[in-house]
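Data availability excerpt. The first of two example chains:
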Amino acid sequence: MDNFIVSARKYRPDNFASVVGQKSITTTLKNAIQNNHMAHAYLFCGPRGVGKTTCARIFAKTINCQSLINETEPCNECESCVSFNKDRSYNIHELDAASNNTVDDIRNLIDQVRIPPQLGKYSVYIIDEVHMLSTSAFNAFLKTLEEPPEHAIFILATTEKHKILPTILSRCQTFNFSRITVEDATMHLAYVATQENVTAETEALNIIAQKADGAMRDALSIFDQIVSFSGNEITYENTIANLNVLDYDYYFKLVKAFLNEDISSCLTYFDEILDKGFDGLHFIAGLSKHLRDLLVSKDEKTLQLLEVGANIKAQYLEQSKECTPWFLFQALKVTNETEINYKSNQNKRLAIELALIKLCNLLAEKKKVN
């Protein structure tokens, strides 16, 4: 049996063009390489799984490529690129600052920096989780970071920029990586599914992208999990079952019941949701998000904030027409207060049931006032 390679490794970008969701950063780095305006120190910061270390590796590979394509992309054929692709390049050095954070570790790095590269023009030193370095290690690193040898380039990567000393920040060009949007993640997952001969519903991939919360690496890991669960056919039903996600359909039915002042249906739906093993807090938070999504669906300017698939978006647009802004504001107020007070309530089920009853009575109360 062939060794399985997880998708996050198998489909890791190997050039700037294949990096997902960081176009402004990759464009800047390519222009710097093309115009020979490269700095000696970079800081890549942002959430986990968005491509910081990947971009650092691609940058290191590109600046040492012996025959660049269009002056900005590695050829993957020269000796330098081949050695990089096979993880035997001596031009790139990676240090995990989480486990190598002492002064002695940095002194060893400084001694290594003095040695010029055997192949290629630059030695690139990638220090991951750099915020984990001790203060004394940072101080020992300062002089070398400010005035390294001509052949040395440092790329510092971190998820917690605020923990880095200002003296370090001032010596680096800073690139802030953004979360991968649901749309970009869904498109990339669709590409991976095609490459793996997996049939996947767009709504299912959209759920995976939402669950990953902006991290492409997490999205690919969840994708592998779903493939293991459902085989080569990923459906919306299998995805929400495996990821313990509450079906949108419940929220649409609940809002319809609120508008119809149908208390019995609301309580019945909630009972079904609890029987499926969902937590009350998870449910009320999801209901708040659903009401928020209905609110942003009422205006074309805010419709772009709705991160769902096309079919679900059509349902939101249809139901938003039935809800007045006043109703949605009042409903959000009820669900938000319930969520805040949920943990302090002794009878948590009753607290949510009372909230559902209030939501069913919103329109009736307004009629009494008028």
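And the second chain:
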Amino acid sequence: MRTRHLLALVFTLAAAACGGGGGDAPDPTGPSLATRTQAATATAQNGSNACSLVRPFYWEIGDKTQRQAGGSVQAAGGLLSYDADTVMNIASASKWLYGAYVAERRGGALTAEDVRFLSFRSGYTNFGFSGCEPPDTVASCAARGTNSLRTDAHVDRFFYNGGHMQVHANLAAPGMNLGALDNAALAAEVRRVLGTDIVLAYTQPQLAGGVRTSPASYALFLRKILGDQLRIAALLGSNATCTNPATCATAVSTPVPAPLSWNYSIGHWVEADPASGDGAFSSAGAFGFYPWVDASKRWYGIVARVDLGGSGAESAACGALIRKAWVTGSAQ
């Protein structure tokens, strides 16, 4: 991840198509749909802001009923293009899905243990870089290497790591009791709870990073949140903990650039930096997939791309610019 300067100054992208769903009725609480769409599109296609660094990508913004705007932005001279139906590995954007799954299973009433695990304060901070193997089950992945090793000094302190969710999913009833599930069975179970209309698969049975899906399917998940169809909607930002070790004694390790102070809630970030944050809820993945819901819980958005070099912060920077353009009606 890059520095705060990058996050603040670099947020859009170049080249491509834009589309919308829904009429251009005046919005009594802000800019018209046409003004928002023009501003967001110009920001996404800007060749000198943060979005210019993450081409090619697909972006989308919508409300609880449908996509309102979006498009594909290609790199200059490039042939690679992403659209709403491009299936891709979403890495840590998987975490929000698992948080929502647990919230549904608990009927919206998380246990203290759930909160500790899902806000990454359980002490299980030794999940290996290689994660799981494709033939694993949830349990065999948890047992692999140091994945289930607890570090007592990290209990009740924030440490961003896949071990929290892997161990949590493997806990016997009254835990989630998912240990026996392989990739196919895990995907079927998550879809059973979140909705079979959400199409997803697991490339490895890793709750924190194993999902493969399309922007269209993830957008459906976000629309369900905005429409209060999933219990995670009422939990956005709840039990949030500080994540910056430089400013918070209860934080140990974070992937967010050091100058930023975001919080972490139930499988998702709260972009609450005092200087630059807008309070959005998000779950950026290391490969560049960045989904968000704005602080008002009225709009959702996605920046979707695949960069195996690690690019969650860059996509978040671009997405934040597009979000600001949409909310204000002014290109960034």
